[in-house]
Write a structure and sequence with these properties.
By secondary structure, the protein is mostly beta strands. It has 1 helix and 35 strands. The strands form 7 sheets. Strands 20-1-2-3-4-35 form a 6-stranded mixed β-sheet. The chain has a 6-stranded antiparallel β-sheet with strand order 23-34-25-30-31-32, with no helix packed on it. The chain has a 6-stranded antiparallel β-sheet with strand order 24-33-26-27-28-29, with no helix packed on it. The longest helix is centred in the N-terminal third of the chain and has 12 residues. It binds beta-D-fructofuranose. The site of beta-D-fructofuranose has 13 residues, from β1, β5, β10, β14 and β18.
Length: 512
């Protein structure tokens, strides 16, 4: 077993405690990466993880995320961790406010872990997990105390942490895995859902309640009937859309089942009648994956003043190495999505604000046969709307991120014969987590015309199918000039219409 202390070399409380030239060195190196995104949020340097505190406050959207800007620093290596803070009017262009909260108290010394935010009387209440270790003099017998912590942010974005924990773990009958509070209000009461691990090493969600934000009462586990779904549920979120109650979370430790649960850790939701907030009873469906792609985790939602339920998520996975680490950074966010419910399933689409990024537009219509055809080139950021009909062929292949001779690409296969959509990342630049397979797929009725929406950025694709019921998000790390899209139809002709908007880069202004 490694000594935990090695994870905390040169631990500092504040980023401002680190010499500026060391911070700048990391940022400068990250800038040289060929994989920097054009319009997806990523960290200037170090690691970006879970979205936190996603909210609307003081007339603007606020997004925080798990941030270790010096995560890859060397000679010397520094350990510093907190929440990064970004603010936006349109969910597209962002003001960078630097550190939102840092790990600088006895409640969160070893990590300001994930949490959420709720506007309350002209302030933004932040609720998060403070990770504390005791017995750190021992080599391996460190004991974790998961504190649930409160803080208030004012309109100048100044954060005051509360000194007393709201809840102190571990709780009786549970292990020390107790984290990620997502707060919401119902009537005059506040509630939060938190991920928790039972003593028998199964995952669950705990519901807690407060009338004043200081004193919290434990209502109990949400009774989902899914008592054996992995060993830990991270980043839970409860919300309602129309008459539906939705509990989403990230279960760890599920076994792959056919084409489901193929990543290291999973994401998904249970949908049903509204949750009974007095008893925790939740009459709900089976567990559905929210995003079936290679890279998606730790999602969090908020409801905005247009009554939209908006989703943010980390387009990445824990314990997974990405090639950007060579440039001392990792991780990016998905482009924000609006959620609705159709026929008992969540459907997702990119928020309409994507239009603020629209630059050149063109429309292509093609009859595709067995000869390979070029559909588009010379852009690395696009919003693509496809309408395809391969009902007269065995299958249609679309190769994104393709090089000149199409030997390297992200391959989308619309297999009419098998009524299946497959995305294959096996022949696509630098491999990522190949141990978890190079294909993801879902059933797709291809006897009819289908619509597909693809958001492409320099090193990612988000693919929306079946009106947003099936979504696949992924990172891809190909060479800079892999900007072509090729199409081929197999054993019969296919029809294709493509409405393509090239996208400008989003603006990030630094307001520190
Ligand atoms: C999910 C997670 C959370 C935790 C955070 C720490 O990725 O493990 O459960 O709060 O990351 O960074």
């Amino acid at each position: 077993m490694t000594n935990r202390r090695t994870n905390f070399i040169n631990m500092v409380k504040h980023l401002s405690d680190v010499p500026q030239n060391i911070i700048q060195k990391e940022i400068d190196l990250s800038k040289t990466s060929p994989y920097r995104q054009n319009y997806h949020i990523e960290s200037e340097s170090g690691s970006l993880g879970d979205p936190n505190g996603f909210s609307q406050f003081n007339g603007q959207y606020h997004l925080f995320y798990q941030w270790s800007p010096l995560g890859f620093s060397q000679d010397p290596h520094y350990t510093q961790h907190g929440w990064k803070h970004l603010i936006s009017k349109n969910l597209v262009d962002w003001q960078d406010w630097g550190t939102g909260i840092e790990s600088d108290t006895e409640l969160d010394k070893y990590g300001t872990y994930s949490g959420s935010a709720l506007p309350i009387n002209n302030k933004l209440f932040l609720m998060y997990t403070g990770n504390m270790w005791t017995n750190t003099e021992s080599r391996d017998d460190w004991q974790r105390i998961p504190y649930q912590v409160g803080a208030m942010m004012d309109k100048n974005n100044h954060v005051e942490k509360w000194q007393n924990p709201l809840i102190t773990g571990p709780l009786e009958n549970y292990t020390d895995h107790f984290r990620d509070p997502k707060i919401f209000k119902e009537g005059s009461n506040y509630y939060a859902v938190l991920g928790i691990q039972r003593e028998n090493l199964t995952g669950s969600v705990l519901l807690v309640k407060s009338m004043n934000l200081y004193n919290w009462q434990i209502i109990g586990e949400i009774k989902t009937g899914h008592d054996n779904l992995g060993y830990m549920w991270e980043c839970p979120d409860y919300y309602e859309i129309a008459d539906y109650g939705i509990l989403q979370f990230c279960p760890q430790g599920l076994e792959t089942k056919e084409n489901k649960f193929k990543n290291i850790y999973q994401n998904g939701y249970l949908i049903g009648k509204k949750l009974d907030l007095d008893t925790g009873k939740f009459d709900c469906s089976e567990f559905h994956e929210l995003d079936q792609g290679f890279d998606f985790y730790a999602m969090q939602t908020m409801k905005d003043n247009h009554n939209r339920r908006i989703l943010m998520a980390w387009m990445g996975l824990p314990e997974t190495k990405y090639p950007t680490e060579n440039y001392h950074y990792t991780g990016c966010m998905i482009f924000p999505r609006e959620l609705q419910v159709k026929d008992g399933f969540i459907v997702q689409k990119p928020v309409d604000e994507i239009k603020d990024l629209y630059a050149n537009h063109y429309f292509v219509q093609k009859e595709v046969d067995s000869g390979i055809q070029l559909l588009a080139e010379e852009s690395d950021a696009r919003d693509i709307e496809l309408e395809l009909d391969c009902s007269q062929a065995n299958s249609l292949t679309i190769d994104l991120f393709a090089n000149e001779d199409n030997t390297d690409h992200l391959r989308l296969i619309f297999n009419h014969k098998k009524q299946e959509f497959i995305v294959n990342r096996g022949n696509c630049g630098i491999p990522v987590s190949e141990d978890y397979g190079v294909e993801r797929s879902c059933h797709l009725n291809l006897d009819q015309k289908v619509k597909v929406r693809i958001l492409q950025d320099v090193s990612s694709a988000e693919i929306f199918l079946n009106k947003g019921r099936n979504v696949f998000s992924m990172r891809v790390f190909t060479a800079k000039d892999n900007d072509k899209i090729f199409v081929t139809s197999h054993n019969g002709t296919s029809q294709l219409k493509a409405d393509i908007h090239q996208l400008r880069s989003s603006k990030v202004t630094v307001s520190r």
